[in-house]
Amino acid sequence: MDSLLKKHSGVAGLPPGTVVYLGDQRVEQTQISVIDYSDGEIREQLLASAGECQAYVGKSTVTWINVVGLHDTDLLQEIGDMFDLHPLVLEDIANTGQRPKMEDHGDYIFMALKMLYRPENDDGVVAEQVSLVLGPNYVLTFQEVEDDVFDRVRERIRTSAGRIRNMGCDYLAYSLIDSVVDNYFTVLEALGDRIEALHDAVTAKAKPETLTEIHGLKREMVYLRKCLWPLRELVGNLESDESKLIDAKLAPYLRDVYGHTIQIIDNLESLRDMLSGTLDIYMTIVSNRMNEVMRVLTVIATIFMPLTFIAGIYGMNFEVMPELKWPLGYAMVWGIMLATATGMAIFFKRKKWL
Amino acid sequence: MDSLLKKHSGVAGLPPGTVVYLGDQRVEQTQISVIDYSDGEIREQLLASAGECQAYVGKSTVTWINVVGLHDTDLLQEIGDMFDLHPLVLEDIANTGQRPKMEDHGDYIFMALKMLYRPENDDGVVAEQVSLVLGPNYVLTFQEVEDDVFDRVRERIRTSAGRIRNMGCDYLAYSLIDSVVDNYFTVLEALGDRIEALHDAVTAKAKPETLTEIHGLKREMVYLRKCLWPLRELVGNLESDESKLIDAKLAPYLRDVYGHTIQIIDNLESLRDMLSGTLDIYMTIVSNRMNEVMRVLTVIATIFMPLTFIAGIYGMNFEVMPELKWPLGYAMVWGIMLATATGMAIFFKRKKWL
Amino acid sequence: MDSLLKKHSGVAGLPPGTVVYLGDQRVEQTQISVIDYSDGEIREQLLASAGECQAYVGKSTVTWINVVGLHDTDLLQEIGDMFDLHPLVLEDIANTGQRPKMEDHGDYIFMALKMLYRPENDDGVVAEQVSLVLGPNYVLTFQEVEDDVFDRVRERIRTSAGRIRNMGCDYLAYSLIDSVVDNYFTVLEALGDRIEALHDAVTAKAKPETLTEIHGLKREMVYLRKCLWPLRELVGNLESDESKLIDAKLAPYLRDVYGHTIQIIDNLESLRDMLSGTLDIYMTIVSNRMNEVMRVLTVIATIFMPLTFIAGIYGMNFEVMPELKWPLGYAMVWGIMLATATGMAIFFKRKKWL
Amino acid sequence: MDSLLKKHSGVAGLPPGTVVYLGDQRVEQTQISVIDYSDGEIREQLLASAGECQAYVGKSTVTWINVVGLHDTDLLQEIGDMFDLHPLVLEDIANTGQRPKMEDHGDYIFMALKMLYRPENDDGVVAEQVSLVLGPNYVLTFQEVEDDVFDRVRERIRTSAGRIRNMGCDYLAYSLIDSVVDNYFTVLEALGDRIEALHDAVTAKAKPETLTEIHGLKREMVYLRKCLWPLRELVGNLESDESKLIDAKLAPYLRDVYGHTIQIIDNLESLRDMLSGTLDIYMTIVSNRMNEVMRVLTVIATIFMPLTFIAGIYGMNFEVMPELKWPLGYAMVWGIMLATATGMAIFFKRKKWL
Amino acid sequence: MDSLLKKHSGVAGLPPGTVVYLGDQRVEQTQISVIDYSDGEIREQLLASAGECQAYVGKSTVTWINVVGLHDTDLLQEIGDMFDLHPLVLEDIANTGQRPKMEDHGDYIFMALKMLYRPENDDGVVAEQVSLVLGPNYVLTFQEVEDDVFDRVRERIRTSAGRIRNMGCDYLAYSLIDSVVDNYFTVLEALGDRIEALHDAVTAKAKPETLTEIHGLKREMVYLRKCLWPLRELVGNLESDESKLIDAKLAPYLRDVYGHTIQIIDNLESLRDMLSGTLDIYMTIVSNRMNEVMRVLTVIATIFMPLTFIAGIYGMNFEVMPELKWPLGYAMVWGIMLATATGMAIFFKRKKWL
Fold first, then answer.
1. Per the count of CB atoms within 10 A, which of C4, C204, D163, E44 is most buried?
2. Chains touching D (3+ CB pairs < 8 Å)
């Protein structure tokens, strides 16, 4: 959540369109890789400088340029100039605190996505911004760090799996979005497993720490929700966009990925319900335990207070206390005490407190 | 709920349109049964292979092909090719974690439905996906397991009951959807009975286990809700769809089934209100019992503490304690004690704590 | 609420349009009464059989046929055929678990309404379904039991009160709907009185039974809400319907009755707020009482525990306990005890616990 | 709230358009006052009978007829006939339980408003219905009681302040609505002061009575809300109404008053938040106090119970109890007791209970 | 919040369009400063009187007139007349209790904004109204106090940074709005820091004062919300406005600032969630502590009550009490007591109360 919150103030007051990278520099060196393919041929290249992109401008084959690392703003500026991107688009690419959104600029469509992944040291979900520019014969993607989610698409291009090699840039962009969306399912499942485990743990034994964990998960889900709702909007807009960049044949695919975003949101809501159910159960267990504590106290107190009182009576030192001299007095007192205790026990039994 | 959640990740990363069955294989062997009828004649057949469907492609009579068992993806592919279904439709048929939805593909309409039923060993509701493809002169249905809900429609076709034999494919599709929707009423009634029983049980005696049951029912209803709202949308879209596949004469029937979905949702909301009312009553009973426990404790403690104190006074061993020597000292103390206890009792009576 | 819930399953699986009565047979014999009137003349008749209705089909005067008792489905079928009603309309008339709704069938408009009344033995509100068919020169109404709400309209027709005799069928239908809607005001007022009484009772003395009553009223209001929202929709649709059956002159009247439905819903929401306010007050009173109980317990315990301890000290049997031999020892102990008790009392006074 | 609730049932069953006054007769005698003005001249008159209004029908100057007192329904009928008002409009004028609304009847626009004021004996807010009819060259207003809110408008007409004398009937109607709306600000401010005072009172000392007051204010605000939302709708409709009765020049004024209604609703919502915040604080204070009570009890009990037990030990009468004979036995016991008490005190200190 | 609430009543009853300043006079003297620039030249001037503005009316360069201090209503009136502003616009400029809004008056667009800042003595956020009038070749801004937020824009004009000197009035207006919006990020961050600190403080130690602080922050956020939602609407309206005053080239910039408002609202909602999470944690900690208190009480009481009872038994003075004479009686009693205490401890251990 902090990332969403903290990012923007760094550029407050700067002229609009100023390209400033606000994240931590997460990769050593910006990497520019190109995959250029058509039905028949494919060519992969690792570019040494942004200038080499020029060769791909206006090429009729499908060109996918992937930029990893956003701290080198000059490089971004250079690429932006080459493909004639609006200054605000470049600003949005570098400013990684964007809300997922889609903008149709006529000659190209700009999309900002959040890719979720779990880092090695497994504490919570981390979001990385992926910017995607879909042009007439190119797709540009900008990532903060290298990610394996796009590898599956690369693999499909290389192996000519499915339809990807026979389709245009729009299908490539769709494939990339689809792989990002599919990744959400994986993230949600992991979250679901944690919630399920928590649920079981709570039912078994309610510890105060679980509360902290529940609240932590809640915050995480609020963050996910913030990513997912605009994502759904983004895909919905893409579906209804009448840009000439998107072929009519893509419609069922976009509808499909739109359906997935709805389903992901459904799942997230299910998880929220489950989590809040877990919280309710926790609360109930705590309250039940409290009740039990009180009941034990009451039972003990109500049994022993009268008994102690009776003992107190015959501990008095009056000179004239006839019972004290009765030979069976002591036994009689025990009798009274047992009767009292038994009466109380029966009373509690009836009240179902025991 | 898990089924909605777990299903999708199995296909994450695969090319779109890949047909993968994600459920457990629930039937031994895929069964393909055909009912082909017109006003005058009817023919039922059990097909040995998908290829035999070819005979029914383009036939002018109403053809209903029902496929039970979705694990044989080659077979699905074959049928899909025969009827020219979009790869994504086939993927959705096999991927049984779909949200209920309707897609008009021009030449045919695809619908994914959730059929609910209660298994023999009565623990909760189970949802099975039923996919339905309505074409110009055929209806394809795909089920995970054999189900008796469609039997009623089959019977009506065989016995020529109602209008079904005089109407087209659209009416058949409507009848199938209607039978699925009607089945929800039955499921909701069973749920209603369980909630009613729970309500009565809670009012009689609030046990901690009932809470777990309430939370279980809540989750079940959340799941039902997830099925019902998209179902309503589906039927609503069907009603407003202007496809040439759906005759104008069908309009009142679709409006009728749409009304039913609204009513089912109404009923579900009623059940939710009832369940949450039950939860409130449970909470109140628990809290009342706690109050009673505290009251008993307080009454006992406030009566016996002063008495024990008095007894303690005269248990002291001071040499000079004149009262101890009074002949009526002991009786006097008893008098004081009785007066104190009576006073307390009156006080509690006034406070309505007794 | 049960009625909404239980009704439908009886027809699950039957062909659509099957006329089945799902309620309990509440009248001995179906009654068919006719009022036929124009500006100048009026004629009332009690029909012996459905066939006699035929005389009124196509008559240019305003004909109101009222059918009481829905168990004789053959009779309904006969009337339906006579006036050319759609099978689904007949099904809806007989199936009394309908949600209020309006359907424009071109030649006639069908409406299902819920009429509320309180039975003699005053336990809660009972809903009866009233179906209304507005044709070009006839109005059909179908009721489960004879009801006095329509009597006011009958009286107006007989006495020519207001405009009713100069207007057409649409005005008659409007008058009937208006009388149903007006009846809701009466029902809500009775409900309001009960809630007001409950509110006063709670403020005076919170008893556990009132909770049950509050929850009962809540359920009743949920049920009312279920009736009222679709009713509002119904009247709204009627207002915006462009059917030739409804004259333009009726517009202000329909707008008026629409305003009434909004006001009824407003009133219901007010009652809900009031009821939930009552619940809050109940909860607060219970919690306050609990607090008071605890405070009494604490005050008593904290005063007497130290005192009893002091008494216990001097009840010890040590051989060397100088105080025991002091002539003023006993008095001194009393002094200490009084000082302690007074100190405690002052402490509690300051804390405002006393 | 009751007024909204109770009013309508008095007319249930009467023919629509029957003029029945449902309020209490609050003025002795109906007063009809007229202000007739144009840019150059102004004439004020107190009419003796409704018939005298006839002189103003069709007059080209701006005529404002104000009727105070609605119990004389014949008089209302007479005026209604004179200005050709629809029977339902007259019914709405007399039936003071109306929801604020606006109806464009073509030749005139009818509006029902709620004017709020606080009576002398300051208990809560009272609502009075003001009906307003805007015709081509007249404005009719109907009030239950004389009110000073309109006096400001009268004064402006008399002194020619602002633009009022140069504008038409629509501006007069706007000015009246504006003065009603402005009055809401005053009422809300008074309410805000009470809530602020309550808030301060609660923070200082939470008394059970404040709860009753909070609930009372809550009900008042629910009532205000019921008045304000339809008012906003009313003004919004007026703004978007394309009646020829409203000049284009009025648009910014209507937009302005619409902005005011939104702002009033905003303020009301702020007050609601503040009130519910006050309730939360009250609850917390009560709960904190309870906690403190329990803590005191626990501290006292856990300190004195062990001490009393120790004293009890040496109060036993065993013949063989060596400690009793030790010369320093008594001192030793005191030592143990002090140590125990000190230990407990340190324990509580660490737990931050003291 | 009070400012929103209190402001309006001062003008209630005055003719619409009366210019009345409702705030406290916060600056000594109204300051009028002008920046007039085109691509090539720039001229800054501090005007001595409103009359000097006349020189800039109709000038083809971009003229930005900034007025600080709103108490001199004659001056406002003079400027308003010069630029032909509607009286209601002038009223809104002076009446600083406006809700953020935008009005397109054809020849100019009027906007009321809330600029937030934190005063030196850091208690909460203060809102200042900034009114902005965008004309064909001028921008007027009206502020209550001098503010440094606009300085950044001034600096950019002076240094020709970014595009500002090459664009028209619309871009200047956009830049000013953008700087106001950017400022919200800063304010939200400061708020976020306070909430984060509070969150940490609560987790470490829940004190009653934190509750007051949480409620204070809640009120502040409600106030922010009141500012932000209309701001978003304002920017959205500006974006979709088809005024000729706004060039098509501005569209991406307006879309960008619209995106920022959405993001700010998102952040605010995140902070609300976080704050309410903090409240939940506080509540839980308090409740846990209460539970712990009760548990300690119960453990102590249930251990010592039976022991004290046993001691009480042998403190009785019966003549015949054989145990008292047993040589090992005393040791035996100690044994029983230790056994009882140990048993209790084991019981509590099992119950996990210790």
1. C4
2. C, E
